[in-house]
């Protein structure tokens, strides 16, 4: 399990694969100086945090290598991040077969 450290006082755990995808989307938004709401459900509890470029965020992975990213999942997560309701953690879709 990886950890999203938020504002140096909050820690949220996600599996490394999920965290890698979240990092790609969050860093993209924050790198453009854009704030966003991030919402997910954990153990039947819905959580939301406001991510802002001035609030420290750190991504800590348990595994040495970050897993490869699923382009379809990145596109879905990015679409939610750009919507008014903000980034929502969606289940990973199957990757289209490569020919």
UniProtKB/TrEMBL annotation:
InterPro entries: DUF7882 (IPR057204). Residues 1-92 form the DUF7882 domain. Pfam families: DUF7882. This is DUF7882 domain-containing protein.
């Amino acid at each position: 399990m990886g950890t999203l450290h938020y504002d140096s006082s909050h820690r949220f755990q996600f599996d490394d694969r999920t965290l890698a995808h979240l990092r790609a989307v969050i860093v993209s938004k924050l790198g453009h100086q854009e704030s966003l709401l991030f919402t997910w459900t954990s153990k039947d509890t819905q959580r939301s945090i406001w991510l802002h470029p001035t609030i420290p965020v750190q991504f800590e992975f348990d595994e040495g290598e970050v897993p490869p990213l699923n382009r379809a999942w990145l596109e879905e997560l990015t679409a939610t991040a750009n919507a008014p309701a903000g980034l929502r953690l969606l289940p990973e879709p199957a990757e289209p077969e490569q020919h």
